[in-house]
Design brief:
This protein is mainly alpha-helical. It has four helices and no strands. Helix 3 packs antiparallel against helix 4.
Length: 83
């Protein structure tokens, strides 16, 4: 993020899409949690999230930030992939 902000001449006023990682189970070290391979379920959720992210970017480009934010903040489950 610092590199992007520096490239934009210290301007932090740009849209970003943030994807959370959840919390490490138990007392697992956060670095080990994020660096371990994805489980099958996590990979499916990640694929779903990437598809939704691409759609959010498409909406932002064509219809503006507010429509895209509404799309992103509308809860949808990765279980919809199985339908």
């Amino acid at each position: 993020m610092r590199s992007i902000i520096n490239h934009l001449k210290q301007n932090r006023d740009f849209p970003r899409l943030r994807i959370g990682i959840g919390r490490p189970p138990g007392k697992m070290d956060p670095a080990n949690f994020v660096l371990r391979p994805f489980t099958k379920k996590e990979q499916e959720e990640l694929d779903f999230t990437f598809h939704r992210s691409l759609e959010a970017i498409r909406i932002m480009t064509l219809e503006g930030f507010n429509k895209s934010a509404t799309f992103v903040n509308t809860a949808q489950s990765s279980e919809m992939l199985n339908r």
